[in-house]
Amino acid sequence: MPFFSGKRLVLLGIIVILLAAIPLTIYLLSRQSDTRSRATKSTTLTLASPPADETSTQATPIAKNVGDTFSLDIMMNPGSNEVIHTTLSVNYDPTKLTFVDFQPTAALPSVLEGPTNTNGNALLVVSTGADITKAIKTPTKIATISFKATAPTGQTPVQISFGDQTTVTSTMTAADQADINVLSTSTPAWVSVGGAITDNSPTPTLPDSTSPTPILTLNPTSPATTSTPNEPPVCTALNVDRVTTGNVPFSITFTANGNDPDGTVSKVTLDFGDGPVQDVTSDGGIGTKTVSAQVSHTYRNSGTFKATATLTDNSSGTSDPAICSQTIIVNQSTAAPTSALLPSPTPITQTTMTPPGPGDKIIGAGIAGVIITILGFVLFLAL
Q1: Share of the chain above pLDDT 90, in %
Q2: 171 C-beta neighbours (distance < 10 Å), count
Q3: Bridge partners, residue 49, by sequence
Q4: Which helix (H) or strand (E) holds 8?
């Protein structure tokens, strides 16, 4: 059989085509992967009016009056990017508007700088934080900025726009530069402020010069009126229904006794020393000169607590809480916690599997090419 038979020539041609096609396929896959990994200038920012997030123009501005406070939503359309960081610089006319607030939304929760306000420019720097998987991939509201209208704009509305410092950063690979700005375009807002600042204070009226001047006549026999100062109530004792030492939970009943020398007691306040405070405004003689108010309380934490009682009279006078007090000592319960009897949980080992990327496809194509070449030579020699 001749070495270069018809079948061998056909097989040899197929092998040559495969050897040429495999490197070309690897090159095209590499170019496709590189194109997809690069960030592009396709992200837009818009200052929109809530709640419908409508845009405004110089011909159709947002209408406000002097004294109104209003907000604008900052909407981001990431385009083909996955946004993880942005610097928002917003310019406005400080002679017509006053900056109020600048806050991010949950889409970019990590505040890296600001908000700051300097001479008609508000600045806020935000990001997704350490987790880049939360990158913005769809149109989203990323922040809200608020202003107060302080002066009328007349026939020409004022513009609120993004400044030169505004940047947007996307997720990137080593092929991208760290400082790439993927912001493509931005849309400003237009605001028309109507009305004027008015002074509503009354105009003083001068007296008629022809009116007779009133003469003040003093009665020397009229005695000066004096008022008797209020005497505060007195708390005489803070009694308890048991010993003041116990274990958690420790329940105890307090009884506050006292009186008001020149009026009535309107309230008894019990401060238990562990945080809660309770007012007694009925029963126990409240509304009379003498009171004996009773309150129960349960201490649920261990420690030493100082309970006090304060009386308030009908003239807002109060007693000295240091006079009516009790020291409560609560010990930790000696019962063994149930959790000590439970077995320790067995740790579960988790295996993280990395999904195949473009590099795996290239390696797979190369391996397939080598295998096909070897099989081709074997068949070539066998025929």
Answers
A1: 55
A2: 17
A3: 54
A4: helix 6-37
Strands 69-77 and 43-48: antiparallel
Residue with tokens 């007694």: 280
Q: Which residues contact 246 (CB under 8 A, 6 or more apart)?
A: 252, 299, 329, 330, 331
Can you tell me whether residue 235 is helix, strand or coil?
strand
Is the pTM above the cut of 0.70? no
Alpha carbon distance 107, 88 (integer Å): 14
Name the more confident of 119 and 36. Answer: 119
Most distant pair of Cα atoms in the chain: their distance: 154
d(CA 8, CA 20): 18
**Token digits of residue 270:** 């019990």
Sketch the domain layout of the chain as residue ranges: 43-194, 234-331
Q: What residues have CB less than 8 Å from 234, skipping those under 6 apart?
A: 258, 259, 260, 261, 311, 319, 323
Q: Is the pLDDT of residue 349 over 80?
A: no
CATH of 43-194, one of 3.40.50.20, 3.40.50.2300, 2.60.40.680, 3.40.50.1000: 2.60.40.680
